[in-house]
Amino acid sequence: MGLFYSQKVTVLAQAEKNKLFAEHPKSIRSFVRRSGRMTKAQKEAFECHWETYGLDAGACSLNFCHIFGNQFPVWLEVGFGNGDVLIEMAAANPDTNFIGIDVYKPGAGRLLKNIAARGLSNIRVMCDDAVTVLQCAIEPESLDRVLVFFPDPWPKKKHHKRRLVSADFVHVLSERIAPDGVLHLATDWEEYAYQMIEVIDSSGRFVNDGGTSGFVDRPVYRPETHFERRGARLGHGIWDVLYKRKPA
User: Fold this and answer.
1) Which of 84, 152, 188, 209 is catalytic?
2) Which of 12, 178, 182, 190 could disulfide-link to 145, CB 3.0 to 4.6 Å?
3) DSSP secondary structure, 36-74, as one string
4) Active-site residue 152, yes or no?
5) 16 plus 112 within the same structural domain
6) Backbone angles phi and psi of 220, in degrees to 5
7) Cβ distance 133 to 57 under 8 Å?
8) Tens digits of per-residue pLDDT, 76-87?
9) Residue 158 sits in a domain of what CATH number?
């Protein structure tokens, strides 16, 4: 079995994949699947680099050792956007493996292009619903760290049920993050930040690392985004929330 076995995981037959989604028919999605048009470069990135850096949801759980060819810790970013933060973290942490999940294909195309351009071997990309991937393709206690940076705040009260950080989502994370592993969230929406803390505290599975305030300064491993710098100039706040998974 080669070092890079399973760089392209076996693709589910469509009927089988539909079955996975059917198991959770009443789940509320936290995203709108944007169908933005991909540029020529992004399409070419998919054609040229998906087989090397892409992962499809398979019929069995992902085997990180086979995928990366090593036993380095695995960090999972949920909702990587354009992928710039994921790229910078992977480049700065070569002894850590990274998986990014996002449903937005143009962003994934940009990320694939940049991974190849920088010659990074410690990133893999998935274009799918993160909750379904976590439930069906990630082994229990296999993730060292889960990163959720600037999820959609769904600010209207009637849409709060669509927020990603919910009791069900946190429960799934508590089963997939290893004991003493880390859950790191960041948002620019203060009310959502406090709701995150309330939901995670209520799970009883994590310990807040932020002391009495519940928040931490931006860790050095999280790159500051262009969006953040612009927000800082306008006086907008950023809230980082860091939790450790309690030992089993």
Assistant:
1) 152
2) 182
3) PPPPHHHHHHHHHHHHHHB----SS---HHHHHSS---E
4) yes
5) yes
6) -65, -25
7) yes
8) 999 999 999 999
9) 3.40.50.150
d(CA 12, CA 1) in angstroms, rounded, equals: 21
Beta strands in the chain (DSSP E): 74-78, 97-101, 123-126, 143-149, 177-187, 206-208, 239-245
Distance (Å, whole) CA 46 – CA 108 = 8
* CA angle centred on 5, ends 183 and 124, rounded to 5°: 35
pTM: 0.85
- Amino acid present at 155: P
Structure-block tokens of residue 81: 């956007």
Q: Which two tokens stand for residue 135?
A: 């439930």
How far, in Å, are 59, 119, 161 from residue 8 at the CA level? 13, 18, 34
**Residue 8 pLDDT more than 90?**
no
Q: pLDDT digits over 215-228, tens only?
A: 999 999 999 987 78
Q: How many residues does the chain have?
A: 248
- The first and second tokens of residue 170, run together, are 């946190």
Do residues 176 and 140 make contact, with C-beta atoms less than 8 angstroms apart?
yes
Please check whether residues 169 and 240 belong to one and the same domain. Answer: yes
Q: Containing domain of residue 151, as a range? A: 140-248
- The answer to whether 50 and 162 have CB atoms below 8 angstroms apart is no
Amino acid at 163: R
| CA atoms 228, 229, 234, 239: torsion sign | positive
Residue 13 and residue 44 share a domain: yes
Q: Are 207 and 130 in contact (CB under 8 A)?
A: no
- Residue carrying the six token digits 């995928």: 67
